[in-house]
Amino acid sequence: MNLLALETSTEACSVALVHGDLLIERFEVAPRRHAELTLPWTDALLAEAGLARSAVQAIAVGRGPGAFTGVRLGISLAQGMALALGVPAVAISTLAALAMRADAGEGERVLAAIDARMGEVYCCAYEIRDGEPHALGDEHVGAPDSVQVEGEGWHGVGTGFAAQDNALKTRLAAQLASVDAEALPHAADVARLAIAAYKRGEAVAPERIEPAYLRNNVALTLAEQQALRASRA
Questions:
Q1: In the chain, how many domains are there?
Q2: Structure confidence by residue, pLDDT tens digits, 100-153
Q3: Is residue 6 located within the same domain as residue 88?
């Protein structure tokens, strides 16, 4: 199968291509350069694999949560490419893709967390089954002290563990077997999860994919942002 995957929800930008057994990726931590990099990287990967755009069978995208502009850009690009090519799209949770970065084995549990700014984190708990993260609850946005997990042996992954002076990492220290607070989501993991989702029949028409912002108001005024920060102090 030939599948292109995009992940632009955080400060990292990445594009991946699956071509049969081949998986190749471009990845860079490049704040505010996602729009500049994504399409040229797409063309470069196709050229590297010797494929024309018309050979692509599906487009996958990290649907968030993450930075509003990055999530919106990724969804828009994926929809535009899929519509132009006449192929379906697969939306993958950015937190699930991030969970793939954890040092966790079969049956182990992962807490994926992304710094949401304004004193909050995006997070979701997962269990690894058949090599994939399966959500144990809903995706959540809130202050680090609102995040609850049961038991020990968790693998923490993502920038949410470094947010607010390592607040989440410190509070859950006794429950964590490992923490990678620098990990960022990769399009390669979006692609891996999307291939499995495609085989399960979860691909949809491009116009049906939707972003996951989690916040009710993704465009707070400056005064609202200052008030929220003050409430977290």
A1: 2
A2: 999 999 999 999 999 999 999 999 999 999 999 999 999 999 999 999 999 999
A3: yes
CATH number at residue 112: 3.30.420.40
64 is a domain residue: yes
Quick one: 122 and 167 in the same domain?
A: yes
Q: Whole-model pTM above 0.85?
A: yes
Q: Is residue 204 part of a domain?
A: yes
Domain that holds residue 86: 2-94+185-208
Instruction: Supply the DSSP string of the chain, one letter for each residue.
Output: -EEEEEE-SSSEEEEEEEETTEEEEEEEE-TT-HHHHHHHHHHHHHHHHT--GGG--EEEEE--SS-HHHHHHHHHHHHHHHHHHT--EEEE-HHHHHHTTS---TT-EEEEEEEEETTEEEEEEEEEETTEEEESS--EEE-GGG----SS-EEEESGGGTHHHHHHHHHTGGGEEEEETT----HHHHHHHHHHHHHTT--B-GGG------SS-SS--HHHHHHHHHHH-
